[in-house]
Amino acid sequence: MSQTTDFDRVVSTWLHADGPIDIRPGAVDRALRLARASGQRRGLRLALTGPTPWPAYGRRIGFGMLPPSVRIALVLVLALVVASGVAVVGSQLFRIAVPLRPAAPHSFVITDVSFPCEAPTGGVTTFTGATMVDFESGVTRRLLECGNELLLSPDGIRAAAVGSDGLVLIDLGDGSRRAIPGATGTDPEPVAWSPRGTYLHWVGDNTAGRPTTAFIGPLDDPRRSRLPGPDEGGYFNGAMWSADETRVLVQSPSGWSIGNGDGSGLRAVPELGAGLLAISPDGTRLAVALPSPNDAGAALAVDAAVGDGLVAPRSVTHFPDGTQAIAAAWSPDGSTLAVVSTSRAEPTTPAAPTSNDLWLIAPDGTQRHLALPLAADPGRASGSVRWAADGEHLAIGWHTVVRNAQQQEAHHYSFVIVATVDGAFAPGDGWTQVPVEEVFFSTDGSRAVYRAGGSFEVLDLDGSGSRSPTIAQLAPIDWGGQLVWTP
Amino acid sequence: MSRSLVERAQRGDRDAYEQLARDAARRLFLVASRILRDTDAAEDAVQQTLVTIWRDLATLRDPDRFEAWSYRIVVRACRKEASRHRRLGVTVVDLSDSLAAAHDAIAEVALRDQLGRAFERLSLDHRTVVVLHHLVGLPLAEIAEILNIPYGTVGSHLHHAMRALRAAIEATERVTVTGGQPA
Question: Where are the beta strands (DSSP E) in chain B?
């Protein structure tokens, strides 16, 4: 007998002797009870759900029994899902980890700073750049150095700017920029966004090295509409879109031209004269100031439908002698036309002090009138009126140019916020007057912001009209005059 | 274990199943207790095995393979029990029964003790192969089928396990001869 056999016997003997050889009877009984209970549950489950889909005597299909190609495919799909999950989670963590920088959706101001840059024709010239300042955090970010006229889109997602390489679009999220094809040598002045940011108006350079042609076009489409240039008697005064972007108005020597939102189908509407004030949100009505026959007052005409043809302007109101409408805007829902007017106390005395008024005109011609507590300087005046998105607040800006005895010009700026509730004025607390030129409403209409004395102030419009200067430390800012509240 | 008894149990004869279970319980417990070296854990493993047999007996295609099939189930239950005990941090080494029942010489006691310790140090897979081969008497091919591993792996497990046990025995013999203390 070999050693191995002996040792096997030793181990076998030890295994038999080393430990109990029989299970306790109670353990078997418990096992049988468990088995019966399990069988009862299984029977109940079968009664409720029917027989199992697995073949009773067949082998269950496990992962290891699948064909190799199917297993590999499943593993790849699983890896792809895991990688996607990791990517999503990682991007969220990255966004949290990346330091805060101005980007939508924030409100911000654009400051202009001069930069020496290489000129397109050689040498160095000075461009006016742009810096974006997050309004609420105060974080700044350089957006444009060698360019001019950076203009934020209405949604605050991107900006249009005119640089040495022409008209470019800058993504505010990552700062990337791309040139608009065929828009090199763009004149910086009349760049304008349509209300929803679908179209852009700009003045292009053809081949003579000077701006000769204006364009309107969708941003992501090389097709664009060519507008009349100065050589053809056109002006470069920008464009005025209806809020829904279905109509656009551009100025021409013969008056105004109206066309589709993309600039196509333009035709002159000389009946409007030069007194166009506003276009309704749906693009079907125009507000026009018409001089009265004796030139002492002004009539306001609306309902100049611009569907298939322009109907004759219909006068809806006549202002008192000496009163002239200088700015108008439709409420966001198109139900009310707000008109700002100026008037001379003595129509025949041009140097007499002026008064300023607000008119709220309903479609049926009924109107409400309120005298505005704006500066009543004798001199050349211009104004603007702007509705908040809530349709309850109005900002009226005022700018007068007064000449002194030495014929030197002095510029006076002021504005008021008017709160309207259910069509009625809310004087008293509803009034605020500060010496600023322009006011910007937040998108929800709850706040307004303006620049005063080199810093910014936020006006709380919760009904009280009280001023709450929550932002006062952004000065000194060489403000370029643009501030956008993004959604 | 008669084929007819298994077939009756497969058809749902509860009495046949109970007789089948009681007959199998003893040998299953013997295997489980040697693999786990823990009476309570072995009983739990056997209980789970009997429940599984009751549940899955209908899926057994060849009634003559009932015994091998039951060993496969009990080995699987032993693995679960061992895993559960590891998670709980419980390690039970019970040699009291064998020691109490034995009235062997001191050398034999030392031998059994050393064998037990060496067996403890084996992995569960190695212990399983040793038990199925030297206690139950199954050939390596059948063990490979029960454990669902290659035949060569079974042989390798057995070789390494037996070499470890033999080393323990030789160490004990050296200690007994020299009168020294085991290492």
Answer: none
CA angle, corner B141, sides to B125 and B128, nearest 5? 20
pLDDT at B181: 40
The dihedral of CA A92, A96, A102, A107: what is its sign? positive
Amino acid at A234: G
Q: Is A284 exposed, middle or buried (0-12, 13-18, 19+ CB in 10 A)?
A: middle
DSSP secondary structure letter of residue A1:
-
Q: Which chain B residues touch A8 with a CB distance below 8 Å? A: 134, 162
| CA nearest neighbour of A139 among A180, A94, A107, A174 | A107
Return the amino acid letter for B167. A
Distance from CA of A84 to the nearest CA of B (A): 33
Q: Which amino acid is at B82?
A: A
Q: Which of A443, A445, A440, A444 is nearest to A457 (CA)?
A: A440
Please give the helix or strand (H or E) that residue A390 lies within, else none.
Answer: none
Band (pLDDT 50/70/90 cuts) for residue A41 is: low
CA-based max dimension of chain B: 63
What is residue A81's predicted lDDT score, i.e. its pLDDT? Answer: 94
Q: Count CB pairs under 8 A between chains A and B.
A: 103
User: Are A115 and A108 spatial neighbours (Cβ–Cβ below 8 Å)?
Assistant: no
**What's the whole-number mean pLDDT along residues A144-166?**
75
Classify residue A302 as left (phi > 0), alpha (psi -120 to 50) or beta. beta
C-alpha to C-alpha distance for B29 and A406, rounded to whole angstroms: 119
A22 → closest Cβ in B29, B101, B115? B29
Residue with tokens 């050889």: A21
Q: Where are the beta strands (DSSP E) in A49-123?
A: 108-111, 114-118
Mutate to test the interface with A, among B6, B11, B34, B40 (most CBs of A within 10 A): B34
Q: What number of other Cβ atoms are within 10 A of residue A161's Cβ?
A: 25
- Cβ(B78)–Cβ(B36) below 8 Å: yes
The confidence score (pLDDT) of residue A296 equals 44
**Omega of the bond leading into A320 within 30 degrees of 0 (cis):** no
Asked if B95 and A42 come within 8 Å (Cβ–Cβ), the reply is no
Contact B116 A18 (CB under 8 A): yes
Lookup: tokens for A399: 């700018």
* Nearest CA among A354, A245, A364, A241 for reference residue A302: A364
The DSSP line for A325-343 is EEEEEE-TTSS-EEEEEEE
Give exposure, A412-445, as e/b (b: 16+ Cβ within 10 Å). bebbbbbbbeeeebbeeebbbebebbbbbbbbeb
Neighbouring CB atoms inside 10 A of B65's CB total 15
pTM, whole model, 2 decimals?
0.51
Q: What pairs with residue A433 in β-bridges?
A: A416
Distance CA A481, CA A124 (A): 26
**pLDDT, tens only, A250-267:** 876 566 778 888 888 777
Find the radius of gyration of the CA atoms of chain B: 18
* Helices B106-121 & A3-17 angle (0-180, nearest 10): 90
Bridge partner list, A386: A395
How many other C-beta atoms are found inside a 10 Å radius of the C-beta of residue B50?
A: 29
Cβ atoms A288, A328 nearer than 8 A = no
